[in-house]
Structures are given as C-alpha cells and as structure tokens.
C-alpha cells in the first residue's frame, strides 16, 4: 500500500513539473498553488520512502536554505519570486547533499540554454517574453527540467522507467 502511495506522489510531482513549465511558458509566472502542492507533496513521499529522522529535517533544511538564498537573488532582481519558491519546494524533495548541488547546477545549465534561446529569438525580432521593455525568461522550464532529472534518478517510478529504457 505504501508503494502505491509513493508512486502516486511521484506521478503527481511529474504532473506538477509539466504544468509548472507550461504555465511559466504561457504566463511568465509560477502560481503559489504550484509551489504549495510541490512542497506539501514531498512530505508524505519522504515519510514513506526515507527514515523520518534525520532525513525529514535535512530535506526541510534544504528547502529553507534555497528559500533564503533565493530571497537574496530576488532582492537583486536575479530571479522571480515564483522561481525562488518553486526551487525551494523542489529542494525539499531533494534534501541536503550532492543531489541538491546537481539540481542547482542543472537548473543553471538549462537556464543558460534557455537564455541563449531567448537571445536568439530577440535577434530575429520575436517579441516573446518582452514585458515592460524587459525580456523575461520562463525560468520555471529550467527548474522543471532539473526536477525531471531528480524524478528519473531518485524517484521509484522514474528508476523503473529508466530500467525499461535501458
């Protein structure tokens, strides 16, 4: 029964990653319900798939750490508020450790590629993402891609799918 609940949480996370990326592409914002659902869904998944103590505390610490650093990035207009909150919510899933470093590095790498695409669009006169005279980056796409990496590598269902793909 717990395996079914774990897989259900993972399927819902996959849906949230897809919806979050699509929402950010369409509206250039990540709504609070997305962040809340991502963070809250991590709790039962962690409770069933990892020892509760100290793992739960370390996972919550990862979320708080990303939120604190993200607030600084927000203060200097380096990231949007939705991006900061969603990345912190995903950090709860990942926890403190090398996986968190990987999440951050993949998010940055995907964000860099996305920025390059946006620059190319601007060079060809495409106005996608231009609001108030500034070009905005749907960074939720980069966050979702890094989240998908975690989903395939650490999620029970993602690992099973990866085995099937070889």
TrEMBL record:
Residues annotated as transmembrane: 6-26, 33-50, 56-74, 111-130
In this protein, which residues make up the domain named Prepilin type IV endopeptidase peptidase? 11-117
In the record, what terms sit under GO molecular function?
aspartic-type endopeptidase activity
Cited InterPro entries: Prepilin_IV_endopep_pep (IPR000045)
Q: Does the keyword Signal apply?
A: no
Q: Which UniProt keywords apply?
A: Hydrolase, Membrane, Transmembrane, Transmembrane helix
Name of this protein: Prepilin peptidase
């Amino acid at each position: 029964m717990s395996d079914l609940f774990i897989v259900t949480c993972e399927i819902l996370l996959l849906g949230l990653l897809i919806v979050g990326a699509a929402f950010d592409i369409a509206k250039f914002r990540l709504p609070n319900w997305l962040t809340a659902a991502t963070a809250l869904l991590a709790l039962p998944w962690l409770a069933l798939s990892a020892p509760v103590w100290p793992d739960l505390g370390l996972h919550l610490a990862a979320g708080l750490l990303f939120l604190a650093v993200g607030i600084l990035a927000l203060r200097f207009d380096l990231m949007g508020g939705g991006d900061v909150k969603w990345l912190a919510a995903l950090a709860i899933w990942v926890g403190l450790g090398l996986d968190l470093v990987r999440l951050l590095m993949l998010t940055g790498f995907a964000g860099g590629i996305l920025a390059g695409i946006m620059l190319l669009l601007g060079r060809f006169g495409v106005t996608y993402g231009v609001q108030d005279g500034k070009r905005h980056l749907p960074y939720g796409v980069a966050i979702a891609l890094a989240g998908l990496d975690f989903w395939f590598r650490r999620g029970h269902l993602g690992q099973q799918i990866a085995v099937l793909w070889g």
